[in-house]
Design a protein that fits this description.
6 helices; 13 strands; single chain
């Protein structure tokens, strides 16, 4: 049987544990831990955002750069189950990478997040309202195609193929299915549409986005190139830098010669001047006026000559001999 002193000690301890004074003390340690976690979280988010922003800006320091004098141009097409789709026609241009309904990607970045290695096919798709990733493809207002959907009786997949120039033959297409690292910059060069940097846009090249059945193992899918109309347009834009020159036609202006004749005793002088009329009507008027003036002058000169001859005849006298 426990002693009374032990029982009293247990009762005293139980009383202290449930006392009001202990229960009323705030858990400062818990609150401090919560505040510390929030602060550390905010600092981590800020540092992560700064790191990401710096990385994006650094990738935007190479061509195509912000505010380029001459834009870049790239021909593109969308191949759905072996059929080329009409080019996207849009007024959207949030980053300086857009299209104008002619099958050309106009690349003239306005922000660093769309310049350099940030100028990607994915950025173009976002700009103009195309859904594009490794699992989905949808043109603005069109049907959504997802991996596994029926295409020519087989499950379809998303592909991207590029050609280094408009003159490159169909067989020279490069399938963008592997992530590559540039040996000079260490940055991702080309990869699937859902990779972080995406397929890079290039000057004077061709690219086709396709939804096609998967080919046989070890084979490359037969992806259509952009049509000849796009190739021709691309060649013109690259040659002119995106500007068109217009030469004004020169219209020959007729010249009317106006002759004035002045008669003086013993001397005749003729002055000729050229008049360039503004319109055909003016030229006709000038010609008429010149003819009338010439005729009048000639008439006046003839009259004067006649009068002089008359005066000479009158001046002689006839004398009769007686």
């Amino acid at each position: 049987m426990p002693k009374a002193s032990s029982a009293r000690k247990v009762a005293r301890a139980a009383g202290l544990g449930g006392s009001r004074s202990y229960a009323s003390r705030p858990p400062w340690g818990f609150y401090f831990a919560l505040v510390l976690l929030v602060v550390l979280g905010l600092v981590g988010v800020y540092n992560s955002r700064e790191y990401r922003q710096n990385k994006i800006n650094n990738q935007g320091n190479v061509a195509p750069t912000v505010g380029m004098t001459t834009p870049w141009f790239e021909g593109y097409a969308v191949d759905i189950c072996g059929k080329l789709q009409p080019p996207v026609n849009t007024n959207k241009n949030p980053f300086g990478i857009t299209t104008k309904g002619d099958g050309i990607i106009y690349i003239n970045p306005t922000v660093k997040s769309a310049a350099g290695h940030n100028a990607t096919l994915g950025k173009f798709a976002t700009s103009v309202g195309i859904t594009l990733n490794a699992a989905q493809l949808q043109l603005p207002g069109g049907k959504l195609y997802q991996v596994g959907d029926n295409c020519q009786g087989k499950p379809g997949r998303i592909y991207v193929m590029t050609w280094s120039s408009p003159q490159a033959p169909q067989a020279d297409g490069v399938l963008q299915d592997k992530q590559g690292i540039s040996p000079t910059t260490g940055l991702e060069d080309t990869c699937n549409p859902d990779c972080e940097s995406g397929v890079l846009l290039e000057k004077n090249q061709l690219v086709t986005i396709a939804f096609l059945p998967a080919p046989a193992k070890g084979k490359t899918p037969n992806i259509l190139q952009p049509p000849q109309s796009v190739v021709s347009k691309l060649g013109t834009l690259v040659a002119t830098g995106g500007t068109t020159s217009t030469t004004a036609a020169t219209i020959p202006v007729p010249t009317t010669a106006k002759t004035a004749t002045t008669s003086k005793p013993g001397k005749t002088s003729t002055a000729t001047s050229s008049t360039v009329p503004t319109t055909a009507k003016t030229a006709t008027t000038a010609k008429t006026a010149t003819t009338a003036k010439t005729a009048t002058t000639a008439k006046t000169a003839t009259t004067a000559a006649g009068a002089g001859a008359g005066a000479t005849s009158t001046g002689h006298k006839t004398t009769k001999k007686g």
